[in-house]
Amino acid sequence: MKATTSPVQIYVTPRSPAYWRVTIDHPPLNVMGPTMVAQFHEIINALETDEQVKVVVFDSAVDGYFLNHADFDAGIEDLTAMPPGPTGLPQWPDFLVRLTRAPVVSIALIRGRATGNGSEITLACDMSFASQEKTIISQWEVGVGMVAGGGPMARLPQLIGRNRALEVLLSSEDIRADQAEAYGYVNRALPDAELDAFVDTLATRIAGFDKWAIANTKRLVNTSLPPDVELGAGWDACMASLGRPAAQERIKALLARGFQKPGDVEERLGYHIGQLAG
Q: What is the pTM of this model?
């Protein structure tokens, strides 16, 4: 199965009827715009309705990037004009909420930058495993005068604690894999050469178990999730923040430095955001 909205930026490869790989493939930077959001919705619709799938692994085909920040060349009106999803939330937080609740196990296999949206899908997945050498996670939005839109303010404190969540969010720094593992941001950081085999073995093992038992165990664990309204509030704050002069000025300054183009700004975003301070 492939997402049908053109051009294809995400594709699904069934390893078996019970185990799917979802690969993000939007070179050169895996930025996320309305087209990708629509394709994520096609995938979550399939995951919710397919009776055989038990495990889904999200990975990337783009070297250096797992899933990146929003596409600032896309019109914000194209994203805000998208109708709410079945949860009543706008489409990106709707996808994330549904992924967390879906009766399948979701695993993020992170190699490269998981910046903004990439961090948010990592937090929405049930498990996450990162390349020690190649993973960088970032919630960068405060550094440019914005608020994140995909729910990290609601999810991170429950996962890593309030103080560490504030460090991640307010510093807008790049988080390396070992620090992410130490904080509990990801399940494990593994040597890059071992990452694929580890995730594939785990996914294959779980895919061999009974779907009813998987789904109901996950449903009971999910009683600790933050309410949807908290993610909706974050999205509203994000949309409002985009129109602020402070955010517009800082994003413009980043774009002038080479933001959203292959090169040093994207590869060392935390450093360059720090240069905007003042």
A: 0.95
